[in-house]
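Summary of Year 1 activities. Much of the first year was spent building the evaluation harness for sequence design. The harness presents a backbone, in tokenized form, and records the residue chosen at every position. We chose the following record to illustrate the format because it has been used consistently in internal testing since the harness was completed.
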């Protein structure tokens, strides 16, 4: 039998395409060999996406799991289930977040997760805790919290063998500023979060090199007119990107709008902070050592009812941003793809629909519901 000649080159046609330069109606995206390419060959097969919008694949820098699986405690197979679940919801790049645990346990997790980073399934590791404030512990176990001793911070990033991307810490604690400097020296993002810092202390941490606010507003002092606290310091400094959880539970839409308007679209990263129940369902779960109950899609600690991560996926965050928050498509793409890709130092490869980059993209229908996901040129969800 004669071999069937097929072309690998595919052109997506007819859709509205969100490019860094703006939104193009009836645009084209050409994919070849897992990459986006500029030229359009006559040999290409076409996929008609009329009525749809094509945006870059989503990049989530703060995510604890999904699909019933935990990045903090799951086996490699379970972790991959979580990664696959988020991919099916448009997140083509996932950083795995841990929660507070024993130092030895965290070091072991780092070693395990680093293998998944090396094989390309995860984009890096984010350590959330244990170097956080007992006053703002959220869903982290208080007895395991500790001050950010640079030597211990160093142990964790060493255990991650070059795959640690970010550490969330309460920089006002003893050793906090030295730990920020150590992280910066090692090319790891220092994120201010689960913090009880004052406005002035937060400025010191930014001066020391901290560049991200972990889920701004959540697990930190509120904005007060006489004591502006970390929120004002983080919003006003152009060096800082603020994470926002756009699920309608963690932040009131008016507060999201305020933060977005204040920081500007280039300094916001939409994250999920998802736990196991994301893309899975209500029920009983564990978040590290803490028991969590998920009801109506809201995850709370059994112990005290504190919000324990989210069940958000980024396709839902995207739809919410354009339909409820009334953000433009371009601004939403910045917050959900481009800015987090830049933070990871990977904007040369992901985060926008440009020739030479990975063919990571999401197809949305007229209601902004997800109907297609492509990752490195392979359909994860094929548009019907
Ligand atoms: Zn988290």
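For this record, the design step produced the sequence shown next.
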């Amino acid at each position: 039998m004669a071999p069937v000649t097929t072309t690998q080159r595919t052109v997506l046609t007819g859709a509205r395409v969100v490019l860094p330069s703006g939104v193009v109606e009836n645009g084209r995206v050409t994919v070849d060999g897992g990459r986006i390419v500029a030229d359009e060959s006559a040999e290409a097969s076409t996929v008609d996406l009329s009525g749809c919008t094509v945006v870059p694949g989503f990049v989530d820098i703060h995510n604890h799991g999904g699909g019933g699986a935990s990045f903090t405690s799951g086996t490699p197979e379970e972790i991959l289930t979580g990664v696959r679940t988020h991919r099916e919801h448009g997140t083509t790049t996932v950083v795995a977040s841990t929660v507070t645990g024993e130092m030895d346990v965290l070091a072991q997790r780092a070693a395990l997760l680093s293998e998944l980073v090396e094989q390309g399934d995860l984009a890096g590791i984010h350590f959330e805790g244990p170097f956080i404030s007992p006053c703002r512990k959220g869903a982290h176990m208080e007895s395991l919290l500790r001050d950010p001793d640079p030597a211990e911070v160093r142990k964790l990033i060493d255990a991650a063998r070059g795959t640690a991307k970010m550490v969330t810490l309460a920089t006002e604690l003893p050793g906090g500023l030295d730990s920020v400097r150590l992280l910066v020296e090692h090319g790891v993002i220092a994120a201010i979060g689960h913090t009880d810092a004052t406005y002035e202390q937060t400025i010191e941490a930014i001066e020391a090199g901290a560049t991200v606010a972990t889920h701004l507003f959540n697990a930190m002092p509120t904005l007060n007119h006489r004591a502006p606290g970390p929120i004002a310091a983080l919003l006003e400094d152009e060096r800082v990107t603020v994470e926002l959880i756009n699920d309608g539970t963690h932040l009131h839409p008016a507060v999201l709008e305020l933060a977005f308007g204040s920081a500007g679209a280039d300094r916001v990263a939409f994250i999920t902070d998802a736990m196991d129940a994301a893309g899975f369902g209500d029920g009983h779960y564990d978040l590290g050592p803490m028991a969590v109950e998920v009801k109506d899609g809201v995850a709370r600690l059994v112990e005290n009812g504190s919000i324990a991560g989210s069940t958000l996926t980024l396709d839902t965050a995207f739809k919410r941003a354009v339909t409820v928050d009334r953000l433009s498509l371009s601004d939403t793409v910045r917050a959900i793809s481009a800015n987090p890709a830049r933070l990871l130092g990977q904007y040369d490869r992901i985060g926008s629909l440009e020739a030479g980059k990975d063919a990571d993209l999401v197809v949305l229908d007229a209601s902004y519901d997800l109907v297609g996901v492509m990752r490195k040129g392979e359909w994860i969800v094929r548009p019907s």
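The chain has a mean pLDDT of 95. Quantitative recovery figures across the full test set are reported in Table 2.
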